[in-house]
Amino acid sequence: MPVADDADGVDEAVDRSGSAGDLPVNELFCSLQGEGRLAGVPSVFVRTSGCNLRCWFCDSYHTSWEPTGDWYSVEDVVAAVEGYDADHVVLTGGEPLVHEASVDLLDELHDRGYHTTVETNGTIYRDAPIDLASVSPKLASSTPTADRDPKGDGEWADRHEDRRLDVPTLSELVESYETQLKFVVTGPEDVAEIESLVSRVREAADAAVPDDRVLLMPEGQTRDELEATRGVVADLAIEYGYRYTPRLHVDLWNDAPGT
Ligand SMILES: C[S@@+](CC[C@H](N)C(=O)[O-])C[C@H]1O[C@@H](n2cnc3c(N)ncnc32)[C@H](O)[C@@H]1O
Ligand SMILES: Nc1nc2[nH]cc(C(=O)O)c2c(=O)[nH]1
Ligand code: SF4
Ligand SMILES: [Mg+2]
């Protein structure tokens, strides 16, 4: 069913479509972590629906531009996770931290001994048992201007632009959790903004952000798209001393759902 798309672009439909405390889940599956420092680790993915941003390139269109999903109690999500033989859970979306119930889910998973990674755009802070905050701050190149809007005519551009970077929130995440900053890179023109943002976070945060916690990830939803960006992004990682991350799941399974 569709998840309500309110003015904020996040679901506030708990009282309309689900019980308080439930989570809108777009998909739940077991795969290999495809991105970042834990790439290759078997993990259960819980993909919530609803996002406060609208990246033009979003590879999870049905959690952002046209959010869909079914409402589950935290208890039912935990039971589904326990059905797989994995000890790592990746909570993603959409933007999982728009949902208060994500904290309840993380609490329950932590109590059962799971390692938790949260994939987040870094605009929302929540206090939760997060083992790895996989933060992907959104660059200017993500903004859905009229010429690259996948749905409309640039109606989201201003809201996306206003919200996409929040240095105090990024600093709080870096200070509170083991963090990786994982940038989606479309080309060399993105690097100046990454350099400037990393310095601002280093100045603002009372915690170190070493270069090997700054990851450059090629933009691309398919093998063909990655073919065009990965070489350029690998060269940028070498030139600037940041880490490169592949998109292992795309290499393995292209853009198949549930991978
Ligand atoms: C769908 S997002 C969900 C989590 C959160 N909203 C975020 O953006 O970090 C999951 C990851 O996929 C990345 N991503 C989304 N679309 C992508 C694309 N076309 N190419 C490369 N990475 C992409 C995001 O930057 C993020 O790291
Ligand atoms: N295999 C796999 N690894 C991933 N790492 C982060 C993902 C995400 O969508 O957040 C993702 C995903 O969708 N699939
Ligand atoms: S922040 Fe994440 S889920 Fe939201 S539109 Fe961007 S990539 Fe998609
Ligand atoms: Mg993904």
TrEMBL record:
Residues 38-255 form the Radical SAM core domain. Substrate binds at L32, Q33, G34, R47, T92. Residues 136-162 are annotated as: Disordered. S-adenosyl-L-methionine binds at F57, C58, D59, G94, S136, P137, K138. SUPFAM superfamilies: Radical SAM enzymes. Pathway: Purine metabolism; 7-cyano-7-deazaguanine biosynthesis. GO terms for molecular function: 4 iron, 4 sulfur cluster binding; carbon-nitrogen lyase activity; magnesium ion binding; S-adenosyl-L-methionine binding. It comes from the Archaea. Its EC number is 4.3.99.3. InterPro entries: 7-CO-7-deazaguanine_synth-like (IPR024924), Aldolase_TIM (IPR013785), rSAM (IPR007197), rSAM_sf (IPR058240). Belongs to the radical SAM superfamily. 7-carboxy-7-deazaguanine synthase family. Homodimer. This is 7-carboxy-7-deazaguanine synthase.
